[in-house]
Design goal:
This protein is of the alpha/beta class. It has one domain: Glycosyl transferase family 29 (sialyltransferase cstii, chain A), CATH 3.90.1480. It contains twelve helices and seven strands. The protein has a seven-stranded mixed β-sheet with strand order 5-4-3-2-1-6-7. The structure holds cytidine-5'-monophosphate-5-N-acetylneuraminic acid.
Length: about 280
């Protein structure tokens, strides 16, 4: 079959992914009274104008080692909103990654593993948090609640109680598996049934929230390196190419949707994507 064009892919992403957060309307969350303590406005409805998005311009900053020595900090900070991942710091790396953080996508390890000091670290304060954990593909929420990959539910409830004013969401697993289906439907091989990386989840989330998105060092630039993270002295090519997550397939899909120039991709590791609200499908 013929591969989809960039426009076709963008419209497929828009129509076949519905950004959705756990809202307490379904079991087991409804019985546990979650509707009362999740943020009152779901993420997908935040600050939406009549047809516009929450943000005009958005930057998505991957944690890849290749962003070191990029000097992209100022450019990244010039966006209305900046999305970062997990425990990736800005302090000490401002020249290359910027200083501003609007949203952090965190996997459930961040909440569950004490080494991340989720409840005390300043990294997670005064920003919007969006957590995820892979539920079974069948979307059995009872099973998910009883045995998540890493226990995010306890720490989530605790955090909501102590910081009710901070916007903090858990992505609905239906959204994660819709994204996986989108990757599989544009990939020749059968990909492993593991959820997409935080990177892909973050990019698609921002396409739902922003008019225009710049993604940095998700597709490697000329600075491509085996250095896993810009903030850690650890080398492993799998961080960039994938092991557990279907990273190479996610990345080739994002690359096919790039509306930016090849030179921005090579020099800045920058992909440009239109927000869903700007597309007429
Ligand atoms: O490493 P991680 O990812 O936190 O990186 C965030 C996103 O940046 C992109 N990335 C990162 C490194 C690299 N060399 N190239 C990249 O393109 C990816 O899109 C990635 O998603 C995750 O996706 O949540 C992940 O989280 C880590 C880890 O759990 C957290 O950093 C917390 O310590 C996972 N590593 C391990 O579990 C050991 C990683 O597999 C996925």
């Amino acid at each position: 079959k013929v591969a989809r064009s960039a426009d076709e892919l963008l419209c497929q992403m828009k129509t076949q992914s519905q950004l959705r957060t756990v809202d307490g309307s379904e079991q087991p969350f409804s019985s546990l009274g979650w509707a009362k303590f999740v943020p009152s406005v779901p993420l997908q409805h935040r600050d939406k104008g009549k047809k516009g998005s929450s943000f005009k311009t958005c930057a998505v900053v991957s944690s890849a080692g290749a962003i070191l020595h990029s000097g992209l900090g100022k450019e990244i900070d010039s966006h209305d909103a900046v999305l970062r991942f997990n425990a990736a710091p800005t302090e000490g790396y401002e020249q290359d990654v910027g200083t501003k953080t609007t949203i952090r996508i965190i996997n459930s390890q961040i909440l569950a593993n004490p080494k991340h000091e989720f409840s005390t670290s300043s990294i997670y304060k005064n920003i919007m948090l969006v957590a995820w954990d892979p539920a079974p593909y069948t979307l059995n929420l009872d099973k998910w609640f009883a045995s998540p990959d890493y226990d995010l539910f306890g720490p989530y409830v605790e955090h909501r109680k102590n910081h009710a004013d901070q916007l903090f969401y858990i992505l609905h697993p239906s959204y994660l598996w819709q994204l996986w289906d989108l990757i599989q439907s544009n990939t020749q091989e059968n990909i492993q049934p593991n959820p997409p990386s935080s990177g892909f989840i973050g990019i698609l989330t921002m396409m739902a929230l922003c008019d225009k998105i710049h993604v940095y060092e998700y597709i490697p630039s000329m600075r491509q390196t085996d250095l896993c993270h810009y903030h850690e002295n650890y080398y492993d090519a799998a961080c960039t190419l994938g092991a557990y997550h279907p990273l190479i397939y996610e990345k080739s899909l994002i690359r096919r949707m790039n509306v930016g120039s090849e030179s921005d991709l090579r020099q800045k590791g920058r992909v440009t994507l239109p927000g869903f609200s700007t597309l007429t499908c």
